[in-house]
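INFO batch 0412 | record 1 of 1 | parsing
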Amino acid sequence: MPDSPAFGVYVHWPFCLSKCPYCDFNSHVRHAAIDEERFARAFAREIATTAARAPGRTVSSIFLGGGTPSLMKPETVGAILDAIGKHWSVASDVEVSLEANPTSVEATRFQGYRAAGVNRVSLGVQALDDASLKALGRLHSAREALDAVAIARKAFGRYSFDLIYARPAQTTQAWTEELRFAISEAAEHLSLYQLTIEPDTPFAGLHAAGKLVIPDEANARALYDTTQEVCAALGLPAYEISNHARSGAECRHNLIYWRGDEYAGIGPGAHGRLDVDGVRRATATEKRPESWMMRVETLGHGVITDDELTSEERADEYLLMGLRLREGIDPQRYRALAGRSLAQDRIDGLRDEGVISVDTDGRLRVTQDGFPVLDAVVADLAA
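INFO prediction complete | emitting tokens
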């Protein structure tokens, strides 16, 4: 656990080459050229405005997400990082992550990102066989994905990649083989997400029409259990419900979210949690890229939601996010936030069911059996 609260900066680049049929993120396809210099100026302006509102912070992590940030020129990335460094102090060991797709990477651009200050890359591989990639609407092949991983390995000290499981007709045997191979390619970190059908996506329409069949609850649970067993056996245990890492290689930026620390959200559709005048505020910016940019050029920021969180809301967020982590939560911190303790009878009941445990130091954790029913565990504790 860190001695002092971390502070992160999330920067959202909203553009993609194509829209994946399972994705409900704020991503947009533009067939005309993107005016990157204008967007870079807008990012710098919003960073300046946000830093004036939350001054004196030391940035411990920066995450360039999307969308597909690897569609940005290295110069654009450099300009964003320079703006952050101009308006906030930056820790000497800052983690600077950039999301990349295997379709949009090549050696010179990766080296350019490294020169700009990126020191960790997260690749959206999603699957390691071509049929699955095609079904997921991805534009790269398995070979291209592995080539991108090799480039990342040479260019960066730290890298990670994502895979999606519980895909149509996927068996535990096939997933075990794919996962073992993935771990052999992943130096320190994997993000492994169970395919879910999100509303208002093409997959949702196909699923409703019976044209897309995903594993039922029992098979999905078997695939989840396989994920935990294989990763733990090969040295990448879960530190969060969907993230696996060797000890010390956890994504520090994502830990900020899950531990309830403070972070600035920059760019179209970005969310933030800022402490302003002793009050935690939840911010969100305009989602549409061009509308966001015009707001920033006019107002200095693209914020459209800026809500004060009550002590109860802060405590609920801490519970919801913190229990995703293997390290769990500190009930004393919950009490300090909420002004009340978690109900002991509910803790005892959930512990008797085997879905949570309480350490000797009092930390409350969700067990391996509890993670598949995490939503129910959180709802019971928060009631």
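INFO post-check: The first strand starts at residue 7 and ends at 13.
INFO record closed
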